[in-house]
Amino acid sequence: MAAPAVNRYLVVEEALRAGAPHDLLNIARRHLRQLYRANSVDLLLADYALTMLQQVSELPYTRRPIPVNGSTPGQAFGAQHEFVERHADASATAHLPVTVRGDRLGVLSVTLPEAPGRDDLAELIKVAQALGHEIVVAERDTDLYLQARRAARLTLAAEMQWQLLPGRSCKRSEYDLGAQLEPAYAIYGDNFDWSTSAEHLTLTVTNGMGEGIDAALLTNLAINALRNARRAGIPLADQAALADQAVYGQHAGRLHLAVLLLRFELATGRVEVIDAGSPRMWRQRGNTIETITFEEQLPLGMFEDTQYASEDFHVQPGDRLIFVSDGVYDVASPAGERYGERALARAINLTRLLPAAQVPREILQQLTRHRTTTTVTDDAMVLCLDWHGTTGSSG
């Protein structure tokens, strides 16, 4: 006998928590068939380029991917809202976003004998959320979900860089974050990092030096040095100085990397900034789009015992900040126009109505259309931060 309707979601959630890491989809299938009479259940995870939804299966790469653009599951993924697709035989498929704290993982597609009612749909949405949380935990112990996200093989440098990331999007009441790296399957030096607490958001945007494994190793060293210093609770300028010493100690100035380091005070919108190189920041405030420049200091690891000084600026509720690496603004069009001069401003304006999580991918797609050739000579990073602030925020 089926569990009472009010307990069905809890039954599925408990089963997912108790299940083996590689078996989450099968557990969800069994319980959704038993408790909701589901005909079929599929889990689709977004690939690294965010252009395809890849079906999770026991044999990776054996199921045809579904494009994000032009498909109903893709619509649910992009809009981050459930969609119910009705079929000719009266059955219906509910496409449910699988998202964890704003990080968009994919879509759970559940086909039912008939369109779900409001209560059933609300429970299925909770099931998709619970599944997402369990996938994040399970990825510590299985490669299944990471394999399912791959439309092609990653280079070793790209493998290292993607494993270093905190996620690709994040959402809380004070802000929305979204970021993307390209070429997704062959990235090597550019990166981003963030960490949040009750009072602050710390954001790091890195423009790596070199190519391949050397670039990935350099970025890994710098990001982990910054994390180590941040977790020790020391001031922002000292975090930069300690990371600088770590990079210089390893490479003696032969290799270095550019970093933009920011610490947002959530209650006030005050931002402490250290500009140690080439990543750029644009701000969209109302109808005004402009670059925001800071005092440029030495890249990390260029010289021994470099000292860094922070400076302040403020964000206001409604501000959108766009961060880009030189792989974005140095790209030339067939007419020789650098992307960052005017085309980037146009791209920011064209994406003004999109949520932060979708903006980086759209800007990078416009970058591809702007590029002189299909040959990529540098990797590129775009990060979008929408600042909502709190009641006490000031500009």
TrEMBL record:
<dbReference type="Pfam" id="PF07228">
    <property type="entry name" value="SpoIIE"/>
</dbReference>
<keyword id="KW-0378">Hydrolase</keyword>
<dbReference type="InterPro" id="IPR052016">
    <property type="entry name" value="Bact_Sigma-Reg"/>
</dbReference>
<feature type="domain" description="PPM-type phosphatase">
    <location>
        <begin position="174"/>
        <end position="387"/>
    </location>
</feature>
<dbReference type="InterPro" id="IPR001932">
    <property type="entry name" value="PPM-type_phosphatase-like_dom"/>
</dbReference>
<dbReference type="InterPro" id="IPR036457">
    <property type="entry name" value="PPM-type-like_dom_sf"/>
</dbReference>
<protein>
    <submittedName>
        <fullName>Phosphatase</fullName>
    </submittedName>
</protein>
